[in-house]
Design a protein that fits this description.
Layout: E1 9-15, H1 21-32, E2 36-42, H2 47-56, H3 68-77, E3 84-88, H4 94-103, E4 107-110, H5 118-130, E5 135-136, H6 145-155, E6 162-170, H7 184-189, H8 192-195, H9 199-216, E7 220-228, E8 239-246, E9 250-257, E10 267-273, E11 276-281, E12 287-292, E13 297-301, H10 309-312, H11 325-345, H12 359-377
Parallel strand pairs: 1-2, 1-3, 3-4, 4-5, 6-9
Antiparallel strand pairs: 6-10, 7-8, 8-9, 10-11, 11-12, 12-13
Helix pairs in contact: 1-11, 4-5, 5-12, 6-9, 9-12
Length: about 400
């Protein structure tokens, strides 16, 4: 663990090696505010490739490990061992890797979906609490300043009573059979043994569902889902439409697709209330559009002096200098650093209503995936996320 009262925290990484953009994103983000130093890792199954990347990143040879079990034991035993380890591997390995570090008392940032079933996701939440470790899931769209401001507006009643929510994460990145053309990410994301059959819900739907929950503060009481495969021959579902009933009977709609032809990133949310509405789009993240009952439109811009403290504390540069995805990811790591330092130093953690997603958020995301899969299997019947015994796997949900 890093030295008490010092600024920099010690980080490790499992996965995120050659060809994995998410690994680079995590590494860039943790460096942006000089909060973390990456000192250890396992960057792939190929030992030589992993060693080469570790050397490129300046990681000492004795901390470039053969596998995650060796890494967890060694880092837990070192006085300067990792404060946190990032798990940036395909879905099917999340549980075993995260469990090894949490059992060793090392905090974990685990990519979504947290695990492939809610039973193991709940086990990780339990282990984190039992070992006084932090478990976080990088749904980093919630770390955009304008998303934080949107959440503050809704929670403070700026839109009145929420009446309807519409959210979509509809990307066209896999609108063609990339998996048949050697595309590394497409190969595992369309492999049901790795990503699960409802792949698009775990990959993109969980981001959309978390964004909905984060801005509105409302969970889904029940969902009705329909899954489709738009690319012929693909072995997983690549398209999902979900009707939701949120707490208090608020209706909502969620659309997730990796085959939305021509769409770029495709993340958008609209929240409607009885006094007004708002809209945020990831491809224009420094603006938040707000409309009143008469349709008068106000466009709020990242950096405005009149924004909430939730937004302004995450703003690095002034008005007119938009910040983007890497900065939002860095905002996640900034909040995480505050939490980890408090744990390390024995000081009270920051008290913020709007902060980073935890293992609980990851668990709710997995329960959402299970509920959508079960609903689809029952001809779109209404299903309550987390109700009853969790499926041992997506296959057990009949998918």
């Amino acid at each position: 663990m890093s030295e008490p009262r010092t600024r920099r925290l010690v980080a490790g990484m499992v996965g995120g090696g050659a060809g994995a953009d998410i690994g680079k994103t995590h590494r860039y983000a943790m460096r942006l505010d000089d909060q973390f130093e990456l000192t250890s890792g396992v960057f792939g199954r190929d030992r030589e490739v992993s060693l080469a990347l570790a050397a490129e990143l300046g990681i000492a040879g004795d901390r470039s490990y053969r596998d995650y079990t060796e890494m967890a034991a060694a880092e837990a035993a070192r006085p300067d061992g990792a404060d946190v380890v990032v798990v940036a591997t395909p879905n099917d390995s999340h549980f075993d890797i995260a469990r090894a570090f949490l059992e060793a008392g090392i905090s974990v940032v685990c990519e979504k979906p947290l695990t492939r079933d809610s039973g193991t996701a709940a086990e990780l939440v339990r282990l984190a609490a039992e070992n006084n470790a932090v478990l976080a899931v990088p749904h980093c769209y919630s770390a955009y300043a304008m998303v934080r401001h949107a959440a503050r507006m809704v929670r403070d009643g700026g839109l009145g009573r929420v009446t309807f929510v519409d959210v979509e994460h509809a990307s066209g990145w896999a609108a063609t059979p990339l998996e048949e053309q050697g595309h590394k990410q497409a190969r595992w994301r369309t492999n049901p043994d790795i990503a699960g059959f409802p792949s698009v819900v775990g990959d993109l739907g969980t981001h959309a569902y978390h964004l909905l929950r984060y801005i509105t503060g409302l969970d889904a009481d029940r969902v009705s889902g329909r899954l489709s495969t738009l690319v012929p021959g693909r072995r997983v579902f690549d398209h999902a439409t979900v009707e939701l009933e949120l707490a208090g009977g608020v209706p909502a709609r969620l659309w997730a697709s990796m085959a939305a032809t021509g769409h770029n990133h495709g993340l958008r949310i609209r929240v409607f209330g009885d006094k007004g509405s708002l809209e945020w789009q990831h491809e224009d993240p420094h603006h938040l559009t707000v409309q009143d009952l008469d349709g008068a439109t106000t466009v709020l811009t990242h950096g405005l002096g009149a924004l909430s403290e939730d937004a302004t504390r995450l703003t690095r540069v002034g008005l007119g200098h938009p910040e983007g995805f890497l900065e939002a990811f860095a905002n996640f790591y900034r909040d995480l650093a505050d939490i980890l330092r408090a744990r390390r130093d024995g000081t009270p953690p920051p008290s913020r209503e709007l902060t980073i997603p935890t293992g609980i958020d990851g668990l709710l995301g997995v329960q959402f995936v299970e509920a959508v899969a079960a609903s689809h299997h029952r001809d779109s019947a209404w299903v309550s996320p987390g109700a009853g015994r969790p499926a041992a796997s997506f296959q057990e949900a009949g998918i």
